[in-house]
Amino acid sequence: MKSVTVRYFGSSSSATRKKIEVVSLDDSATLKNLLDFLVLKYNASLRHLFYDRSGEFKPLVMFLINGKATDDLAYPLKEGDEVSIAPLIAGG
Questions:
Q1: pLDDT for the residue 90
Q2: Which pTM does this prediction carry?
Q3: What is the DSSP secondary structure assignment for residue 46, as one 8-state letter?
Q4: Do 15 and 42 meet the contact criterion of CB atoms below 8 Å apart?
Q5: How many helices and strands (H and E) does the chain possess?
Q6: How distant, in Å, are the alpha carbons of 20, 25, 60 from that of 87?
Q7: Could you give all domains of the chain from N- to C-terminal order, each with its CATH number?
Q8: What is the dihedral of CA 12, 17, 22, 28, to 10 degrees?
Q9: Tell me: the pLDDT tens digits for 1-26?
Q10: Residue of 51, 47, 27 whose CA lies nearest to 37
Q11: pLDDT one-digit tens code per residue, 34-75
């Protein structure tokens, strides 16, 4: 098992009612495994931020792992990684 810190911002913080938490995941866990774990834990309040109604991955948030943005669901998480879930920002 490995520990990963999850930081929540904006809508994800509202959905979880947390700003930060540490979760334990299997040693082979990926970003997708983390998202699945969080959806099981928080149910619909987070599901709509990650997936559309058909279940396709279409996040309304962005993911940063150790400060670097990624949308790679297969990204292998390591012990001590910090995953931030932040709202998408659009402007013009």
A1: 59
A2: 0.89
A3: H
A4: yes
A5: 3, 5
A6: 15, 24, 7
A7: 2-87 (3.10.20.30)
A8: -40
A9: 999 999 999 989 999 999 999 999 99
A10: 47
A11: 999 999 999 888 888 888 888 888 888 899 999 999 989 999
